[in-house]
Specification:
alpha+beta, Rossmann fold, two-stranded parallel ribbon, 10% strand
């Protein structure tokens, strides 16, 4: 078994054309995909932005599995379309109607 290779995902979360991931998957060692979620990012992001990021991370995880790389998430993983994140409950459905 070779040396583990860490692939850092920052803004480009597409595994199908990620040069660093492609190179890492050609090595004999295990590939460790890494995405660091900064808590401050979530604190200032709108709900739709958090939902978009959740969907993008779910797509990334799926794409990594297809390529033989596994991903893990420390803590709680939110459902992709729930709008909730670790430490933040999903928003309550609105019961008020707009006129």
């Amino acid at each position: 078994m070779g040396t583990p290779v860490i692939v850092l995902f920052t803004q480009d979360l597409r595994p199908h054309d990620h040069p660093a991931l492609s190179a890492a998957l050609r090595t004999p060692g295990p590939v460790v995909p890494l995405f660091v979620l900064e808590p401050g990012l979530l604190a200032r992001a709108a709900r739709n932005r958090r939902a978009y990021l959740g969907e993008a991370l779910a797509d990334l995880r799926s794409g990594l599995r297809e390529r033989g790389a596994t991903s893990s998430c420390a803590g709680e993983t939110p459902p992709p379309r729930s709008g909730s994140w670790p430490g933040r409950p999903a928003p309550e459905p609105s019961t008020s109607a707009r006129a």
